[in-house]
Amino acid sequence: MRKLFISLLFLLCAQLLMAQDVSSADNQNPNYKVSLVKYQTTQENLSGNMNTTVQNTYKAYDWTEAKEAQKKDRIARRQERALARINNRSYFPDYLFWSPNCIYNRY
Amino acid sequence: MKRLNLIVVIFISLTILSCSHQVTRIEPTATPDINGSWNNTDSRMTAEAMIMQCLGEAWLSNYSASKGKPVVIVGVVTNKSHEHIEAETFIKDMERAFINTTKVGLVQSGKKREELRAEKADQQSNATISSMKKFGLENGADFILQGSINSIVDAYKRKKTVTYQINLELTNIETNEVVWIGEKKISKMVKN
User: Fold this and answer.
1) Helix (H), strand (E) at residue B146
2) Which 8-state DSSP code applies to residue B83?
3) What is the predicted ipTM?
4) Which among A3, A11, A100, B125 is placed 20 to 30 Å from A26, CA to CA?
5) Domains in chain B: how many in total?
6) What is the distance between the alpha carbons of residues B80 and A57, in angstroms, rounded to a whole number?
7) Which residues are bridge partners to B148 per DSSP?
């Protein structure tokens, strides 16, 4: 029993000495453990991107690209309209064919 | 008839030749600008400037004189420009310069470090005791290298100017003191 007590005491003293060693850096903030615990738990998430390039790009306005996009949109719109005309004969708006003498394409 | 055949053959061969895909080897140092985007030349120019600045400035001699060879770890580089730019192309050149000059030590970071630790963990149960590598004996870095890439685009009709600004920073891990900031600006005028 005595032996066990002595060994436990020795262990406690050693631990205290070690703890003192860690915290005995000159001018170290006594609350450093708060930060230590906080970052030890999130360390893996924070260091996962190390040695990589995080892409946080933005879209810059480019005149030629905008023109190209407009052109593509126009072509797509026309194609869509042409298809709609083929598939649906009554697609043509009435006003295009309206005439006081000739009324057709009415439902 | 023979003449017609010849014309047809010439026409077909010309068509095939004009459609064929052509690849020519060029020197990596002579990458031509094609559409004005970030390319190999920009990466090389950045690497050269950064290596020269980093190894030639006071932080290195100051640290070496008091504490010996500094050990650097590479952190995150954030690309905040309008293009996809991979910083690894010039960061690797820098790392190589660090190792080749033997003035700066380098430790692994990120996924590669995880891989190393996983291998070490594997050795604990699979390697012989004499060859097994121990945990807790890694070199701690003194400095962390972080960076950012920014760009400014000014475009009107078919003209465009692009300015890239690449910044790399070296920070003392213990004190958070920034000891070096490297900068490289690249400007381009593009006419479409």
Assistant:
1) strand B143-156
2) S
3) 0.80
4) A11
5) 1
6) 5
7) B78, B167
Check if the beta carbon of residue B145 is closer than 8 Å to that of residue B50.
no
B138-172 per-position pLDDT tens digit: 999 999 999 999 999 998 888 889 999 999 999 99
B63 belongs to a structural domain = yes
Please report whether residue B134 resides in a domain.
Answer: yes
Provide the number of structural domains found in chain A.
1
| Torsion on CA atoms B58, B59, B62, B68, rounded to nearest 10 | -130
Domain annotation covers residue A67: yes
% of chain B surpassing 70 pLDDT: 96
Query: Which among A47, A52, A62 is the nearest to B155, CB-wise?
Result: A62
* Gap between the Cα atoms of B126 and B147, Å rounded: 39
Q: Closest partner residue to B110 among A49, A58, A59, by Cβ?
A: A49
Is there a contact between B33 and B39 (Cβ–Cβ < 8 Å)?
yes
Taking CB atoms and an 8 Å limit, are A62 and B160 in contact across chains? yes
Sign of CA dihedral A73, A78, A82, A84: positive
Domain range for A72:
63-97
In a domain, A43, yes or no: no
User: What is the per-residue pLDDT across B23-36, written as a single tens digit (0 to 9) for each?
Assistant: 988 888 888 888 88
* pLDDT tens sequence across A54-81: 999 999 988 888 889 999 999 999 999 9
Is B192 at the interface with chain A, CB within 8 A? yes
Taking contacts as CB-CB distances below 8 angstroms, the residues of chain A near B79 are 53-57
In chain B, the DSSP E strands lie at: 71-79, 105-107, 143-156, 159-172, 178-191
**In angstroms, what CA-CA distances link B22 with B16, B25, B31?**
12, 10, 16
Nearest-angstrom CA–CA distance, B146 and B139:
19
The pair of structure tokens assigned to A66 is 């905008």
